[in-house]
């Protein structure tokens, strides 16, 4: 460092610059030196000047690679090469005629650091004019800017047009073990040179949040390399019930891939008080995405985002959004309180496919777990081994009777216990008829001598012998003894400690004793021994007073009480008020004086102003708050990061929030979407999916549905053809539909193009006239007069001389449905036909109830070697239509264009369909390929029998298909070796006998199965395994 400083001083002081203040420069350089020396050092990770025979990677000089960046192109018409421009060499890119044609990228491994510096020269070639240039780091935009060549630009590269160089320098906060950099430009020609990637190093791996670092140690680090060739059992995460070792890659960055929507890992830990963890979650082919991170099944963080991928549209689906619409989320949990010997980390995702033929998927990399060994904020020492006193075995514990506690501080008590705010403790509630473990009895009152007093068994007054509150032998002499006691003790006044005290004089013993009640409380007025002798003598002489004396001795002292009564206080000191049960004096909140357990007192009762009920306040949704941090939330709110958060889709309706409903999913058209009721079409506000309260403009509410207001002179597109502001029939527009005169044959947009010609009737022949009059009224009319219907048939509505059927809520013979409106897209169309993809329940004298038909759905689950798994479900709950139906026999499953001898196919139920009730059924289809196939086969599944859904709607026969993955099938040589290993394993198991060694046999069997299932064809490996375990086995049994 000193040599660098000397070089800097020599270099700057020898510059011939007019007005250079050398003294000021020396001072600045010295300050710079001190900052560098006392801070973290900066290390060059990668540099490539494209004109140096050597490049530097992680401080090591290597032979120059002309182009060490990777590229993606939309078409083949582009340039990506090494180019000389003037005296410099650059990496040259020409997009040619396609915008954003060429994208360059590279990933780097990094040492522990907290900042990244990216520097390079951008070559703007051939007169740039507002050309967009973008840089992404780990899928986040760090530069998005329009660049142009200035007027002073000159030609230095290739063609005769003007070129210019701009220095790019970006510093970003970054602490991950790797970094992925993506660069591209909108149009034309460009290049980069003198690229330098630097980091600000740490001395060791730390857990930090960019504000501070913590004294922690890293105990587990995995999946941090750019290239991950394999995953061992300690690195793999649990997926679908077993430890996964699946690897995939995003260009040059590899990751641990999940075959489902979740990952889980359990890790054993040494003694600790807190943990921190870092993790990179990679999402592919998903638009709207939810990620939930749980620690020990408790939600710690949750992310919800929509599009977040690199904006790079490409005709090849592989490169859409840089790579299958790829995005990533960096998890950083810092200083999370945790003391358990094992931790379970769960990642749950909810994804929606962008490219629908493929299911979305996710993966992880760069997992780091830290532990804090000792922190006084999380451990306790009470110098005893007593449980339920707030601290046990150096770990905070709840006090007796407490239901929930935080760091040994009780929050609320169990039923039958009373919460004491002054010391955050719980005491049994005597008199509530609930018997707790510290109470002998509880008769719901405080009457003495009734068998139970102060929740302890007591004897009646006239009882000589009692047991469990029941008198066994009565004594009638108690009245005489009580009179003798009052006679024997005469009031007197004596001088005691310079004060006059009332006392009693014992005639028999001829001695003075102080005030009897004060004496019994024993406040150091006489010696303990003398007091004990006196009390015992009184009880022996007057047994009736035993309970009274005990009550006086056990009388509770209430702090801040002016006047104590028996177990209660009559009046409190200034600044304190009586509690409801009069057993304690609590500070008077709101008097502006902070005392006892009060943390603040702002003389008001306003919440969320920093002080509420003399405690630091939290948000309104918090049920219990400690020191301004929420501990318990109201129903429906989840406690995340010590705040109450409303999470749509968790199945919990958050009270006092904007949630109207929460059905636990994000599916639309099921009555609740994004925690809001899905109203009927054109409804503005509704109480559920069937009952509308207020319609949109130009619509009216009719039988809980919204229909256009016909006659308001406004045409609702798609629902109304015309609007003439009246309800006059045959005037060109009636009921907001085009309608011509009665005798019109051809009517176009309300205008008649051809009229019906009527034959003149013969004299004295009235029948044709009557027929003509009857034909004037529309179908369904029973009585017609003067071209207007007077009486309609049943279930038709007479409206302005016309019989209206469709939309009246009664299904007629010529209608397939009638839901009480004439709206489309609700299952029953405006002409009362059932719409495609829907079916309706039609009951007598009731509106038709229409629902979407349940659809057969198959989804790819995972692949293991030559076996692939597919799930079969329905979009709704279904059941068998008849009791004798056999579901599996009605299924037709085959692979298109592949002979059935090339594969084996089985189906296993997870949730089986039954006849008695509807279920979310689920079946697993297992396909094992026996021959190699070089393309993605198509699986076709057909259901050839009808079912019933949850709405008693017929589920028709249907068929669907899915593209499987390319099978990975062993050749005959690999298969032969695997079969040999299986035979060896079976013989070994048969050779292990003896009931006492079953556990050892299980261990060997489990490990051999691991080898067999991994399809290892090396016979030597299994022989070594058997030999090694046989030696260990002999040592154990000896």
From TrEMBL:
Q: Which UniProt keywords apply?
A: Disulfide bond, Repeat, Signal
Question: Could you confirm whether the keyword Protein biosynthesis appears in this record?
Answer: no
Q: Matching InterPro entries, A to Z? A: EGF, Myxo_disulph_rpt
Q: Write down the SMART domains for this protein, in alphabetical order.
A: EGF
Signal sequence, start to end: none
Is Repeat found in the keyword set? yes
Which stretches make up the EGF-like domain?
397-427, 613-645, 678-707, 783-818
Q: NCBIfam families given for it?
A: myxo_disulf_rpt
Identification of the protein by name: EGF-like domain-containing protein
The species this protein belongs to is Paramecium primaurelia
């Amino acid at each position: 460092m000193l040599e660098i400083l000397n070089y800097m001083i020599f270099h700057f002081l020898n510059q011939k610059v007019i007005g250079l203040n050398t003294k000021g420069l020396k001072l600045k350089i010295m300050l710079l030196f001190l900052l560098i020396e006392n801070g973290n050092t900066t290390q060059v990770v990668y540099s490539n000047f494209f004109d140096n025979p050597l490049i530097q990677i992680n401080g090591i000089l290597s032979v120059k690679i002309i182009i060490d960046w990777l590229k993606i192109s939309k078409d083949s018409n582009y340039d990506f090469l090494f180019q000389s421009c003037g005296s410099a060499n650059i990496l040259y890119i020409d997009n040619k005629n396609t915008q954003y044609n060429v994208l360059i990228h590279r990933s780097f491994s990094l040492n522990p650091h907290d900042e990244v510096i990216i520097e390079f020269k951008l070559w703007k070639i051939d007169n740039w004019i507002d050309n967009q240039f973008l840089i992404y780091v780990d899928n986040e935009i760090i530069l998005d800017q329009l660049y142009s060549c200035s007027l002073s630009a000159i030609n230095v590269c290739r063609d005769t047009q003007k070129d210019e160089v701009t220095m790019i320098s970006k510093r970003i906060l970054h602490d991950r073990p790797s970094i992925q950099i993506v660069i591209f430009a909108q149009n034309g020609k460009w290049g980069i040179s003198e690229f330098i990637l630097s980091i600000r190093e740490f001395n060791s791996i730390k857990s930090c949040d960019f504000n501070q670092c913590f004294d922690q140690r890293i105990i587990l680090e995995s999946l941090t390399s750019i290239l991950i060739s394999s995953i061992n059992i300690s690195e793999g995460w649990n997926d679908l019930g077993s430890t996964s070792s699946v690897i995939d890659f995003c260009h040059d960055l590899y990751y641990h891939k999940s075959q489902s929507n979740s990952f889980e890992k359990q890790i054993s830990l040494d003694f600790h008080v807190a943990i921190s963890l870092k993790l990179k979650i990679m999402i592919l082919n998903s638009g709207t995405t939810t990620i939930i991170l749980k620690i020990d099944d408790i939600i710690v963080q949750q992310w919800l985002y929509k599009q977040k991928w690199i904006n790079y549209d490409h005709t090849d689906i592989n490169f859409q959004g840089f790579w299958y619409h790829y995005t990533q989320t960096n998890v950083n949990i810092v200083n999370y309180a945790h003391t358990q010997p094992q931790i379970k980390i769960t990642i749950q995702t909810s994804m929606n496919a962008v490219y629908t033929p493929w299911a979305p998927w996710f993966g992880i990399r760069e997992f780091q777990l830290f532990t804090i060994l000792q922190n006084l904020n999380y451990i306790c020492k009470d110098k005893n081994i007593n449980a339920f006193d707030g601290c046990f075995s150096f770990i905070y514990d709840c006090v007796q009777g407490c239901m929930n506690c935080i760091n040994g501080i009780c929050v609320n008590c169990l039923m039958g216990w009373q919460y004491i705010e002054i010391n955050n403790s719980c005491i049994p509630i005597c008199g509530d008829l609930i018997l707790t473990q510290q109470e002998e009895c509880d008769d719901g009152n405080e009457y003495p001598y009734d068998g139970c007093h102060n929740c302890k068994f007591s004897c009646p007054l006239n009882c000589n012998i009692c047991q469990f509150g029941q008198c066994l032998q009565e004594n009638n002499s108690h009245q005489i003894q009580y009179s003798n006691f009052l006679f024997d003790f005469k009031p007197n006044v004596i001088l005691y400690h310079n004060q006059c005290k009332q006392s009693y004089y014992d005639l028999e013993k001829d001695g003075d004793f102080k005030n009897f009640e004060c004496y019994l409380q024993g406040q150091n007025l006489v010696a303990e021994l003398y007091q004990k002798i006196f009390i015992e003598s009184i009880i022996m002489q007057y047994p009736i007073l035993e309970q009274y004396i005990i009550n006086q001795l056990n009388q509770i002292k209430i702090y801040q009480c002016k006047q104590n009564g028996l177990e209660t206080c009559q009046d409190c000191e200034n600044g304190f008020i009586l509690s409801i049960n009069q057993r304690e004096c609590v500070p008077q909140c709101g008097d502006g004086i902070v005392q006892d357990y009060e943390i603040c007192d702002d003389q008001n009762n306003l919440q969320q102003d920093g002080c509420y009920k003399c405690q630091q306040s939290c948000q309104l949704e918090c049920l219990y708050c400690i020191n301004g941090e929420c501990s318990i939330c109201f129903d429906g709110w989840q406690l995340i990061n010590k705040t109450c958060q409303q999470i749509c889709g968790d199945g919990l309706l958050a009270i006092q929030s904007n949630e109207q409903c929460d059905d636990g999913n994000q599916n639309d058209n099921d009555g609740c979407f994004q925690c809001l009721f899905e109203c009927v079409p054109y409804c503005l506000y509704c109480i559920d999916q069937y009952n509308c309260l207020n319609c949109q403009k130009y619509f009216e509410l009719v039988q809980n549905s919204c229909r256009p207001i016909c006659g308001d002179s406004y045409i609702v597109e798609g629902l109304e053809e015309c609007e003439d502001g009246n309800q006059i029939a045959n005037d060109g527009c009636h009921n907001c539909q085009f309608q011509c005169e009665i005798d019109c044959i051809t009517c176009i947009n309300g205008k008649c193009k051809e009229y019906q010609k009527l034959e003149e009737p013969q004299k004295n022949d009235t029948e044709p006239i009557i027929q003509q009059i009857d034909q004037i009224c529309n179908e369904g009319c029973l009585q017609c007069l003067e071209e207007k219907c007077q009486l309609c048939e049943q279930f038709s509505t007479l409206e302005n001389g016309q019989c209206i059927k469709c939309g009246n809520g009664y299904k007629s013979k010529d209608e397939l449905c009638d839901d009480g409106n004439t709206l489309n897209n609700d299952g029953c169309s405006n002409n009362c036909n059932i719409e495609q993809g829907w079916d309706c329940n039609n009951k007598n004298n009731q509106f038709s109830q229409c629902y979407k038909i349940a659809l057969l759905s198959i989804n790819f689950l995972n692949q293991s070697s030559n076996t692939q798994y597919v799930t079969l479900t329905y979009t709704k709950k279904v059941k068998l239509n008849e009791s004798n139906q056999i579901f599996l026999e009605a299924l037709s499953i085959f692979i298109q264009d592949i002979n059935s001898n090339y594969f084996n196919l089985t189906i296993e139920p997870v949730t089986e369909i039954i006849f008695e009730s509807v279920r979310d059924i689920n079946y697993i289809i297992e396909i094992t390929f026996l021959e190699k196939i070089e393309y993605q086969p198509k699986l076709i599944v057909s259901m050839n029998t009808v079912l019933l859904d949850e709405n008693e709607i017929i589920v028709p026969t249907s068929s669907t298909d899915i593209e499987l993955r390319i099978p990975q099938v062993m050749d005959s040589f690999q298969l032969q070796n695997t079969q040999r290993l299986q035979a060896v394993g079976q013989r070994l198991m048969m050779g292990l006998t003896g009931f006492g060694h079953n556990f050892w046999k299980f261990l060997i069997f489990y490990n051999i199965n691991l080898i067999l299932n991994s399809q290892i064809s090396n016979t030597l490996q299994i022989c070594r395994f058997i030999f090694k375990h046989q030696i260990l086995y002999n040592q154990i049994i000896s």
